[in-house]
Amino acid sequence: MSSDGALIVMREDEATHEWPLPKDGEIFAGRDGSCEIHLPDRQISRRHAIFQRRPEGVFVNDLGSKNGTWVNGVQVQSPVLLRDGDEVSIAARYKVYFVDAEATAPVVFDRRGLRIDGETLMVFVSGQAIDPPLSGPQYELLKLLYDAGGSLVGRDDIVEHVWPDAARGGVSEDALDALVRRLRLRLAEYDDEHQYILTVRGYGFRIDMP
After folding, report:
1. CA-based Rg of the chain, rounded to a whole angstrom?
2. Each residue of 57-80: pLDDT tens digit?
3. What is the pLDDT of residue 60?
């Protein structure tokens, strides 16, 4: 069956997959093994979304999924016509990029961002694992800010979390600032265009995702 364009499916720290689009017909994305785009994740509905080629172009529509489908950050409520480079988010777990067969320039995919694997204690920045790993205090600080989801974390709360055995007042302001500085430098090794840890002067710190 001939194809016209393709869908590029990506997920952090996983391989990238490509599905050619048929000139006529449809492609289903979902958790069910019968779906052409098989996404084995419990946040994905069995038949989550459908991609269809019509005379006007390629459309995507949500199939009443539990966790939704978005195109360029806007939730899909009815069929949406895709344009070259559009990003389709499936339940905020997978990113699907539409590549038009007639595009004259390659689509550049932005994989910036930060992810922490709580089981392996590995930290990924822009899809790359930080190696050598962060030190214990660096990891604990980053994990605390990461789990706060962008909310402010006070300096005292950080000290109690990172240095639980230290006597009250035993960790200086300079020691905490030095830890933050070293962590920023490690993250900048993998993404020097974004400041992931922001200082809220006089209060504490918060994480900022790209």
Report:
1. 21
2. 889 999 999 999 999 888 999 999
3. 95
* Closest-CA residue to 117 (of 38, 12, 208, 9): 12
CA–CA separation, 51 and 62 (whole Å):
9
Task: List Cα–Cα distances, 45 to 39, 50, 73, 79, 183, in angstroms.
Answer: 9, 12, 19, 18, 38
Distances (CA, A) of 98 to 82, 134, 170, 174, 189: 7, 36, 54, 48, 30
For residues 113 and 11, the answer to whether their CB atoms sit within 8 Å is: no
Burial class of 25 by CB neighbour count within 10 A (0 to 12, 13 to 18, 19+): exposed
210 three-class SS: coil
pTM over 0.70: no
DSSP sequence for 8-51: EEE-TTS--EEEEEESSEEEEEESSTTSSEE---TTS-TT-EEE
- Is residue 125 within 8 A of residue 114, CB to CB? The reply is yes
Residues 6+ apart with CB under 8 A from 203: 152, 154, 155
